[in-house]
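Onboarding guide, step 5: your first structure request.
Type a short instruction followed by the sequence, for example:

Predict the 3D structure of this protein.
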Amino acid sequence: MTPDDLKIRGLESELQFSASRSTGAGGQNVNKVNTKVELRFSVISTLILSDEEKELIINKLKNRLNKEGELVLVSQEARSQLANKLAVTEKFYRLLASALTLPLQRKETRPTKASKLKRLESKKFRSTVKKFRRSDRITGEE
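The system replies with structure tokens like these:
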């Protein structure tokens, strides 16, 4: 699943944003403007996602969810509130898309005849190397 697929569903109606004062460089701007943006999304109470999708998100993002089952993301890199809001929204969609993407199933393959022969040759070679080491050290003869 891609972030664009999620944007089409209309999850933005369930996102809650709040702004607060950011930390770090910015001079006077930091002290008087609320530029840090916090996004909250309640995974448990959303109506847009199916129960299976909710389970996937809860299992994959369990370390990022709070006790109420909310996903909380923060952005404070930019010096404007709008840029931080866009950044945190994009981060949200990427995170949700990666959580909803199922891993590809591995197809079992058989080793080729050449790879089997190569493996056996390397085993024979190692065996002879070890055999010569052993015979020289133990008996002193060949």
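Each response can be followed by summary notes, for example: Residues 114-142 form one domain.
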